[in-house]
Design goal:
single chain, Hormone receptor fold, Rhopdopsin 7-helix transmembrane proteins, 2 domains, two-stranded antiparallel ribbon, 6 strands
Length: 397
């Protein structure tokens, strides 16, 4: 059942319940209403109505109660910022359930660290013109996709997840943020696929135009996620989903397909690259056999390290345990760490541990710290000339 069906069902049930219930005989009262989350009964003026927290909102505990205040003049209390009747759901997160906010804090810390590392990497790779090549161009776009994803996740947690009012109102901007976030998440995987495709093409296909290859990868990396993201947003908009389109359900098919295809193809490329390199290494550099370069071996090591990390999240997702499971909390923390620190791993493997980048940084450091010393031979010659001139002056006197 989608949100629109749930709201229609609950709205009808709430109207029927309130119509069959006599208003309080205490005089002024607030008329029963439905706020798309809960049904609130007729409530006497200057009192508070209570209802159990909804179970479909992520992070809410059904053992707790939300409340809605009826003012002394018989109207529901209105939020000063929106001017609309407001129900207080901020009490739906149990104080003892600090692990929920702790997990969010882990995500925010990981995304922040990754974002800083990615920005530094982008600055380094774009500053040194000597590093400009097809491989670095692919790296730069990969870093940009991760940086965009991390920045959007930080905005999502700060503006939406920590605001029950925003979740309840589900304004257009938060749904647009969710749609953009899904696109940015998909670009991470398409650009990892581009990394694997580039490395595979360069090592396996000797005769290929890198310029044309990079152009094709630029189009694929940024454009392939557009269609799935639009389909996902259109389906959710047609279903009139609320909660800013946030849910803890299984991955959407239109989003999961491109991710699974990217991961499977990357692993396929990796296996073939390992086969080709092993073949060349076993050949022992015989006549007519090109041995793999140090750059290729470094790229291979980076790909080997990144492949399991990038596939880990979607391998575990189908087996996500229920909240009642004993290892649910462990799963959430592991997922938070591996997901939020992917950008940091990308920056470390492809930039901070890159030999060419390190050589450029060392060269720049030597230039900045170099202090030219006075030439001792020149100083001696100048001193001798000055002394001779002074002596000649004395002779004339």
């Amino acid at each position: 059942m989608n949100d629109a069906e749930r709201i229609a069902r609950d709205q009808a049930a709430c109207d029927a319940a309130n119509n069959s219930t006599a208003p309080p005989d205490t005089g002024l009262y607030c008329e029963g209403t439905y706020d798309t989350w809960q049904c609130w009964p007729h409530t006497p003026a200057n009192s508070t109505a209570y209802a159990r927290c909804p179970e479909f909102v992520p992070g809410f505990s059904t053992e707790l109660f939300a409340h809605k205040e009826c003012t002394a003049n018989g109207t529901w209390w209105q939020h000063p910022e929106t001017g609309q009747p407001w129900s207080n759901y901020t009490t739906c997160i149990a104080p003892e359930d600090d692990y929920v906010s702790d997990i969010i804090a882990v995500y925010e810390a990981g995304y922040t660290i990754s974002l800083v590392a990615l920005i530094l990497s982008l600055g380094i790779l774009t500053y040194f013109k000597s590093l400009r090549c097809a491989r670095i161009t692919v790296h730069i776009n990969l870093f940009a996709s991760f940086a965009l994803n991390n920045a959007l996740w930080l905005a999502w947690y700060g503006l939406v997840v920590r605001s029950a009012d925003t979740l309840a109102a589900s304004p257009p901007w938060c749904r647009a943020l969710n749609a953009t976030l899904q696109y940015a998440l998909l670009t991470n995987y398409t650009w990892m696929l581009c990394e694997g495709l580039y490395l595979h093409t360069v090592l396996v296909s000797a005769f290929v135009s890198e310029r044309r290859l990079v152009r094709a990868l630029l189009v694929a990396g940024w454009m392939l996620p557009v269609a799935p993201a639009i389909i996902n947003a259109a389906r959710r908009a047609a279903a009139e989903e609320t909660l800013c389109w946030a849910d803890d359900g299984p991955p959407r098919p239109e989003l999961a397909v491109i991710v699974c295809v990217a991961v499977i193809l990357n692993l396929t490329f990796l296996c073939n690259i390992v086969r080709v390199l092993c073949t060349k290494l076993r050949a022992g550099g015989g006549a007519g056999v090109a041995r793999p370069s140090a750059t290729a071996l470094h790229a291979l090591r980076a790909t080997c390290l990144l492949a399991p990390l990038l596939g880990l999240q979607y391998i575990l997702t189908p087996f996500r345990p229920p909240r009642t499971a004993s290892w649910w909390l462990v799963y959430e923390y592991v997922s938070a760490l591996t997901t939020s620190l992917q950008g940091l791993c990308v920056a470390v493997l492809y930039c901070f541990c890159n030999g060419e980048v390190l050589a450029q940084l060392r060269r720049r450091w030597r230039v900045l710290t170099f202090r030219p010393r006075a030439n001792s031979t020149t100083n001696t010659t100048v001193s001798f000339v000055r002394s001779a001139a002074a002596g000649a002056g004395e002779d004339k006197v």
